[in-house]
Each structure stands twice: as structure tokens, then as C-alpha cells.
Write a structure and sequence with these properties.
By secondary structure, the chain is of the alpha/beta class. It has 11 helices and 12 strands. The termini are far apart. Bound molecules: guanosine-5'-triphosphate. Guanine nucleotide-binding protein that plays a crucial role in the cellular response to amino acid availability through regulation of the mTORC1 signaling cascade. It is found in: Cytoplasm; Lysosome; Lysosome membrane; Nucleus.
């Protein structure tokens, strides 16, 4: 597949000739700049000047990195993604494969979960949430169980259905869960993973999805809750479908998604690129892509490329001691496929990477692409800065509100 291959692992980036005269690069999304003309093609852009690492992690507490969901007195908590479903439907396997790099075959030895497992996922500046894995046997509608508290802070509820099993019971549990959760928090996104589809033929998969879709919608309509929207995904841990489904779930929790998509659209249209993804490298979740449709094969190629880069970096790269990663913000890779397509990976931060698909002819203008990438990086920094400012203001306002309340109550008690 790969005719030529080039990886710059940690600390080995060859950011040679920075021929660019110090230009004043504009930072707003509308101004992702375009360079045209012959001489621009010679440019090699040095991204070091704008060190995104500086704002990717260190400046922020965990709370700051959370997208949305304010519920405590003066802070912001991470949105929760709940993994629910009957026993042995595959919940823990999904979590282990996507977030712990467990190989699918190892999940055969996973023991049944007997208590709620919470895990923080804060792998990048944009991806930050908590996953709660519920044991299949738990009756969370038991009166002693505070399900209202759980649903109140939930961003997405993933209900996993084992497609290789009889799913009648799973569907009635899904209905119960969704209706109760909706009453507590109508903002939850409800996601249904029709899981373990690796054992089914293509026709059978579609048929199952149609059947499950029809039954759940009929149940909701009968209950007068047709306004509840469920999204369905066919998933398996044995291929990339689980990563793709998880990407779509996570994207719904990123408030900056439209801005990121817009930036990617501007970037690709000005750089001769056919498709670009913004990946969270650790989990292989793509947090944004441009508006052209995503096909599974392209996504799989991106995942394979990320695996290769990580493997090579682990072997030949110098460890990024601070972050505990084998790659850093300077890592990049180029793969030339034998069908004249080039895949170009460039790190945006130490956690985020952009993967682009383009024609060989367009790649000849690498200088232009690198320059536009550099502008894209700066625009992302702006998005991030704005978010930090909004969150800091929100915190400040909350603190003020509380001190005002304290004062008021002080006045009340003295007049009494
Ligand atoms: N064929 C196939 N098997 C899977 C898939 N995902 C999980 N499994 C298997 O399903 C079995 C149960 O997986 P678990 O992850 O333990 O299920 P769980 O829902 O967490 O179970 P509880 O902890 O009991 O609630 C394991 O043997 C997994 O290997 C899949 O996509 N395809």
C-alpha cells in the first residue's frame, strides 16, 4: 500500500528552511489564509512559533476543560456518557477497546461488572468527559438508587443491544430507561448501539436495525413520547465501527463542533485537500471533519495511519516524558498510496492530529498546505481561548452570585 513513508517522531522534526518572511497571520476563522502563486509552493512552515501545547492542557484545570454542563455551585463538571444495557451485551468491552487499547480478543476474558465504573477521559483540549459503565444486572430504578442525580448531569446515554441475542427484553429495558431519563433531562442524546454485528451478514444487519428502529419508535409513540429522538449505530469491537460510532456520540458533546467544521471546510477548500479529519490520537475518535460525507474506508485508513505513527514513534521516537506519550505536537507522517492518493498527518497539539486525504498533484503544493495548516492551528487556538474566557467569566459570575447571597442573608439576619 505505502510506497513512501516518512514519520517525524518526537524531537526529530525537521522544520528546516522557514523561508517565510515573518507575516502577520490573522487568527480568526474567517481569515484562514490562502496563499496563491508559484513562489508559495516552496514554503516550509515552522509551526513551533505557535506552541499549541502551551494551551492544550497545562493552563486548565480538569473543570476548565469540560465542554458545557454546569451544575455545581461555581464550577463546570464533565459531561457524562452512560453505557447501559443488559448483561454481557458488550459495554465494558467497548470501553476497554476504545479507551484502553485492549485487543478485541482479550475482552473474552473480561469479568462481569458488578459496580458502576466511572472513568475520566480528558485526552485532549476538546475531548473531556466521564464514562460510566453500568453493570447489566443493576436495577437503577430501585427506590434506593438516585437515578435522577445520574441523568441530570448526563450528556449522552448509550444503550448497548446484543444483536446476536434475542433482543425483546433489551428493547423493553431501553424503553424504560429512555422514558425515565428523558423526564429527568430532555437534553440527553440517546444513542443505541446495535452491537456485535460482526456475526451478521450485511442484509441481516440492515434488517435488524430496521426492526429495532421500528419497534422502539412504536413503543415511544404509544407512550406519547414521539418527540424523543434515538440514533442507531451498527457496531462491533472487531472493526472500526465502534470507533466511528463513538466519534459521533462524542461530537454531539463538543459545543465548538460547528466552528471546527467550518474551519476544516475553509482549510480544505483553500488547500486542494479532499477530506480532513481532526483526530483525538489516543482514542482514534475523530472530533470533527469537513462537511463532505465520511466513508468507512477512509476512516479506517486514518485509524491505520495513526496506529502506524504511534508504533513507529514508540520504537524510534524519544519519549515525551512530561506527557508520557511517544509522539508530540511536532509529529507528522506522509503516506503515498499507489492510487495517487496521499495521506498527510500532522499533529495539532500533542493529543490532536489532523489527517488529510489529497491527490498527488495537490500535495506538490505542500508549502501552501503547511501555511494554511499553520493558520488553522492559530484559529483553533482562538476557539480554545474564547472557551477558556467564557468559562472563567462563568465561574466569576457564580462566585459573585454566591457572595451576594451570603451578604443578603447577613443583612436579613441583622434586621431580624
Ligand atoms: N462477537 C462479538 N463479541 C463481543 C463484542 N463486544 C463484546 N463482545 C463479547 O461479549 C462478551 C461480554 O462482554 P462484556 O463487555 O463483559 O459485557 P458487559 O455488557 O460489560 O457485561 P456486564 O458487565 O455483565 O454487564 C465478552 O465475551 C466479549 O468478548 C463484539 O463486538 N462482537
Amino acid at each position: 500500500m505505502a510506497l513512501t513513508y516518512q514519520v517525524n517522531a518526537v524531537g526529530k522534526l525537521d522544520t528546516t528552511s522557514s523561508l517565510n518572511p515573518k507575516q502577520n497571520v490573522s487568527m480568526t476563522s474567517e481569515k484562514v489564509s490562502v496563499l496563491c502563486g508559484e513562489e508559495d509552493e516552496a514554503l516550509e512552515y515552522d509551526d513551533d512559533e505557535y506552541d499549541l501545547e502551551a494551551f492544550s492542557d497545562a493552563d486548565l484545570s480538569c473543570e476548565d476543560r469540560a465542554p458545557g454542563f454546569s451544575d455545581s455551585m461555581n464550577g463546570v463538571v464533565k459531561p457524562r456518557i452512560l453505557l447501559m444495557g443488559l448483561r454481557r451485551s458488550g459495554k465494558s468491552s467497548i470501553q476497554k477497546v476504545v479507551f484502553h487499547k485492549m485487543s478485541p480478543s482479550e475482552t473474552l476474558f473480561l469479568e462481569s461488572t458488578n459496580k458502576i465504573c466511572r472513568e475520566d477521559v480528558s485526552s485532549s483540549s476538546f475531548v473531556s468527559f466521564q464514562i460510566w459503565d453500568f453493570p447489566g444486572q443493576i436495577d437503577f430504578f430501585d427506590p434506593t438508587f438516585d437515578y435522577e442525580m445520574i441523568f441530570r448531569g448526563t450528556g449522552a446515554l448509550i444503550f448497548v443491544i446484543d444483536s446476536q441475542d434475542n433482543y425483546v427484553e433489551a428493547l423493553s429495558r431501553l424503553h424504560l430507561t429512555v422514558t425515565r431519563a428523558y423526564k429527568v433531562n430532555p437534553d440527553i442524546s440517546f444513542e443505541v448501539f446495535i452491537h456485535k454485528v460482526d456475526g451478521l451478514s450485511d442484509d441481516h444487519k440492515i434488517e435488524k436495525q430496521r426492526d429495532i428502529h421500528k419497534r422502539t419508535n412504536t413503543d415511544l409513540t404509544d407512550a406519547g413520547l414521539e418527540q424523543i429522538h434515538l440514533s442507531f449505530y451498527l457496531t462491533s469491537i472487531y472493526d472500526h465501527s465502534i470507533f466511528e460510532a463513538f466519534s459521533k456520540v462524542v461530537q454531539k458533546l463538543i459545543p465548538q463542533l460547528p466552528t471546527l467544521e467550518n474551519l476544516l471546510n475553509i482549510f480544505i477548500s483553500n488547500s486542494g485537500i479532499e477530506k480532513a479529519f481532526l483526530f483525538d490520537v489516543g482514542s482514534k475518535i475523530y472530533i470533527a471533519t469537513d462537511s463532505s460525507p465520511v466513508d468507512m474506508q477512509t476512516y479506517e485508513l486514518c485509524c491505520d495511519m495513526i496506529d502506524v505513527v504511534i508504533d513507529i514513534s514508540c520504537i524510534y521516537g524519544m519519549p515525551n516524558v512530561e506527557a508520557g506519550l511517544p509522539h508530540d505536537k511536532d509529529s507528522m507522517a506522509i503516506i503515498h498510496l499507489n492510487n495517487t492518493t496521499v495521506i498527510y498527518l500532522k499533529e495539532v497539539t500533542k493529543f490532536l492530529a489532523m489527517v488529510c486525504f489529497l491527490r498527488k498533484e495537490s500535495f506538490a503544493r505542500k508549502g501552501l498546505i503547511d501555511y494554511n495548516f499553520h493558520c488553522f492551528k492559530k484559529a483553533i487556538q482562538e476557539v480554545f481561548d474564547v472557551r477558556v474566557k467564557v468559562q472563567q467569566t462563568r465561574k466569576l459570575l457564580n462566585q459573585r452570585r454566591w457572595s451576594k447571597l451570603t451578604l443578603t442573608s447577613g443583612v436579613c439576619s441583622s434586621t431580624h
